[in-house]
Amino acid sequence: MPALTEPFTDSFDRADVGSDWHNTGAEYRTTGGQLSIAGAHNHPLWLRRKLPFNVVVELDATSRSPDGDLKVELMGDGQSFDPDQGRYDPTGYMFVFGGWKNSLSIISKLGEHDDAVKVARQLPHVQPGRTYHWVITKRGGVLDWQIDGHPFLQYLDPHPLWGPGHEFFAINNWEADASYDNIRIRPAD
Questions:
Q1: pLDDT digits over 162-179, tens only?
Q2: End-to-end Cα, the chain, rounded Å
Q3: Whether the Cβ atoms of residue 122 and residue 115 lie closer than 8 Å to each other
Q4: Residue 174 near residue 40, CB atoms below 8 Å
Q5: Mind listing the pLDDT tens digit for each residue in 66-84?
Q6: Closest CA to 40 of 167, 182, 152, 173
C-alpha cells in the first residue's frame, strides 16, 4: 500500500466508523457526525492509509470530561494496542492534551512515560465541552503542534520515525469521554 499522495478527509457523517479505520478493540462509534469514544484503555483506532514522510494532520477534538485526555498517535505501526490495561508502548509519536487527569500535555516518542516524553507542558488544561482545532505537522524530524491557531508544543527529532512500523495515524483514548471530527491528513508542502 503506497503512502497518501492526496488529502484524506473524514467527517464521520455516517452510521458507523467505516472501513477506512482499524479498531483494535474499543467501542468507537459515530454519533451526531463525530467519532466518539470513552474507556478505550489504549486500544487505538488506526487509519488504514500509510502516511508520507512529511505530513499534516488537522482535526477537531473535544473532551466532555474534567479529566481532559485527548490523544492521537502519529507514525505508528497501524495495529498495536495495550493488551492488559497496563503500560501502553506506542509505536509512534503520541500527542496528549490534558493527560493524567488533565495535568500534563506531551509529545512523546515510542512511549508515554519517563524518557519517552520529549516535550511537555502543564498548562493550559482541557476545558470540558470545548472543541479544539489541532494542526500537527511533521516535516523531517520537526514535529509542530498547534491548537486553535497558536503554537502549543514542538519537538525536533534527530532520528525521525518513518517507514515500516512507523507509517500510520490513530485516535486513542484512556477513559475520558471524547470526540473527534473533521480529520484532514495530507502530505506537507
A1: 999 999 999 999 999 999
A2: 22
A3: no
A4: yes
A5: 999 999 999 999 999 998 8
A6: 173
C-alpha cell at 122: 502543564
Q: Mind listing the domains of the chain with CATH numbers? A: 8-187 (2.60.120.560)
Q: How many residues does the chain have?
A: 189
Distance CA 143, CA 123 (A): 19
- Kindly report, residue by residue over 33-72, the tens digit of the pLDDT: 999 999 999 999 999 999 999 999 999 999 999 999 999 9
Give how far the C-alpha of residue 17 lies from the chain's centroid of Cα atoms, to the nearest Å. Answer: 16
Question: CA 185 → CA 53, 114, 188, distances in Å?
Answer: 12, 29, 9
Looking at residue 127, the DSSP 8-state letter turns out to be: P
CB half-sphere exposure, 127, CA atoms < 13 A: 4
pTM: 0.97
Q: What is the spatial distance between Cα 184 and Cα 42, in angstroms, rounded to a whole number?
A: 22
| Contact predicate 91/165, CB 8 Å | yes
Sign of CA dihedral 38, 83, 94, 46: negative
Distance of CA 9 to the CA centre of its chain: 15
Count of beta carbons in the 10 Å neighbourhood of residue 149: 7
Q: Report pLDDT for 62.
A: 98
SS3 84: coil
Order of all β-strands in the sheet with 104-109? 21-23, 45-47, 168-172, 70-76, 93-98, 104-109, 117-121
